[in-house]
Amino acid sequence: MDSDTGLGEFRYLQNAIDEGDFFNGSGLKDLSAHAGTHVDSPGHFINEAYYAKKGVHQLDLDILNGPAVVIEVPDNTNITAAALEALAIPPGAVRLIFKTLNTKKKLMTQTKFDPTYTAVTKDGAEWIVAHPHIRLVGIDYLSIAHYADLIGPHIVLLSEEIIPLEGLVLEEVEAGLYTLHCLPLKLVDSDGAPTRCILMP
């Protein structure tokens, strides 16, 4: 976040055929565990959870994979409790993915960070927690939490071990029901991890 240049060059060739090696072998450098599409673990905002080693390797794959609903959020609102109450969220939905104005603005394709992104407010997070069948919430920008209060919504969600799935690219995805396949890198004890996520009709 707060970058004008995006990720920059994080992949480089450690070994190169052009330089006499037998193979091309890439390395990664200066890549945040919260870059691009990624998940958060409780240790991201809760220090006790970090030292208790509640990292991404302990996230439940049964929650990260399964039926999901993509919900279109009106352009004129953040994801507040009132907005959630007005949305047509199917009863018993476990995985919610919010498609917002962020997608129309193509924020995930921009290198410069945009602090005006749409996200979940603290009272929105409290609404989610009050519906205990919800175990995963996804968003189409780099943070599930609104920039005006990054800490509050994260702590509300992570305290209940609801998985935030951030940085989704939803330009080709319509609202509706899907099967989510999401496998984060197994970074032991990490507070977050990049992940490849696929939505299947």
TrEMBL record:
The keyword Metal-binding does not apply. InterPro entries: KFase/CYL, KFase_sf. SUPFAM superfamilies: Putative cyclase (SSF102198). Keywords: Extracellular matrix, Secreted. Pfam families: Cyclase (PF04199). GO terms for biological process: L-tryptophan catabolic process to kynurenine. One of its GO terms (molecular function) is arylformamidase activity. It is found in: Secreted, Extracellular space, Extracellular matrix. Belongs to the Cyclase 1 superfamily. This is Cyclase. It comes from Coccomyxa subellipsoidea (strain C-169) (Green microalga). The lineage of its organism: Eukaryota, Viridiplantae, Chlorophyta, core chlorophytes, Trebouxiophyceae.
